[in-house]
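Lab manual, section 2.4: Encoding a predicted structure.

Procedure: take the sequence of the chain (128 residues), apply the prediction step described in section 2.3, and record the output as structure tokens. A sample record is shown.
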Amino acid sequence: MLIQKNIDVINAYRKLDADPAKQDYSTEEPSSGNKVNWSADYEAGLVISEKIRARIRELSVTANNIRDVVDYIQSARSALSEIEKRLQCMRELSVCAAKDITTDKDRVNLDAEFQQLKREIDEIALQV
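Recorded output:
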């Protein structure tokens, strides 16, 4: 019976076991997903990679700013809707006050409600 030894496998295993730092370096690319992790890998590629990463960070900040603006616009739209409702009520009060059948006492009450609506509009405008 002949026993054969696989010398290549034994040497590869010995080299792999000898320097764990090299093992970490060699597995960094597949584990990070980046083709270039160190300047020793490919210097020009690293420069390009860093520029792309910086641009991605810039775009991320821009996306956050856009979301903030959209939220602000939605708040303003909601505030304008509330102001529109109060203006409609003020218009109806004005029409009622202009009628001949409205008494002076009724006009005072209508004006008090009108002024209250005006204060609410001012408060909404200050909140936005």
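Check your result against the sample. The helical segments are 7-18, 20-32, 43-98, 104-127.
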